[in-house]
Amino acid sequence: MIRTAISVLYMTQSYIMMAIMAFVFFPYALITPNGASFACRTYARYAMWTARLMIGIRCEVRGKVPEGEVLVAAKHQSFLDIIMIFEALPQAKFIMKQQLLYTPFIGQYAYRLGSVPVNRGRRTEAIKKMLADVKAGRSRPGQLVIYPQGTRVAPGVKAPYKIGTGVLYQELGQPCVPVATNVGVLWPRKGIPRTPGLAIVEFMDPIEPGQPMETFMQEIETRIEAKSNELMKEIGFDA
């Protein structure tokens, strides 16, 4: 009961602060994408700081954080891994659901960052649009983050890795950095209570361009799932 109450208090103040920061930084974000990036990074740091202070979740980033033009294929368990990945990367942009464009604050800022909205319900068209937006420069240079499973996946739940990541990998000709996490054990995709502990996001060695599609898809799934299971076990969850 106490944990739930504190979690509600944390979420309430974090949403209020998100609205305040979005309003305060909006003119800066309109002038330049760097303004949007600064605002989002400031909020991410605030959210992680208050998570440690109020609910006992400590955030740790491991591995070599990539720079330059790379594809980042990340395990997605909750909103916390988005915050941690964004704060760690020098210039992150995301493949995101079309519907998020209409989410207050998040949609507008994500668009200013150069994120690429796609319609998940029409996979072939979504993949083509992803590639067109990236190649046409509508997505600014930086680290393009995609969630290979397409959505948040709870710890211990199996979900397929979708082909869109492989298509981007082949068409862009960039290295792909797999990312594992355990944050869903502490910050669930659904529900309110947050659990104190060590939330980890780990960047792994990149997969260089040129792998056959099937080999690439098998490698990212194997590496991301194995490392995520290892990180979850580290904090007491055996997948």
Sheet with most strands: strand arrangement: 1-7-6-2-5-3-4
CATH architecture: 3-Layer(aba) Sandwich
What's the order of the H and E elements?
HHEEHEHEHEHEEH
Structural class given helices, strands, pairing?
A: alpha/beta
- Name the beta content range: 15-25%
Helix content range of the residues, please? 40-55%
Short description:
The protein is of the alpha/beta class and 239 residues long.
Description:
It is a single chain. The protein has seven helices and seven strands. It is an alpha/beta fold. It has one domain: Glycerol-3-phosphate (1)-acyltransferase, CATH 3.40.1130. It has a seven-stranded mixed β-sheet, sandwiched between helices. α4 links the parallel β3 (92-97) and β4. α2 crosses α4 (106-113), α5 packs parallel to α6 and α6 crosses α7 (213-234). The chain starts with a helix and ends in a 5-residue tail after the last helix.
List the helices and strands and how they pair.
Blueprint: H1 2-31, H2 33-55, E1 57-62, E2 70-74, H3 79-88, E3 92-97, H4 106-113, E4 116-118, H5 123-135, E5 143-146, H6 164-172, E6 176-181, E7 197-203, H7 213-234
Parallel strand pairs: 1-7, 2-5, 2-6, 3-4, 3-5
Antiparallel strand pairs: 6-7
Helix pairs in contact: 1-2, 2-3, 2-4, 5-6, 6-7
Provide the descriptors you would attach to this structure in a database record:
single chain; 239 residues; Glycerol-3-phosphate (1)-acyltransferase; 7-stranded mixed sheet
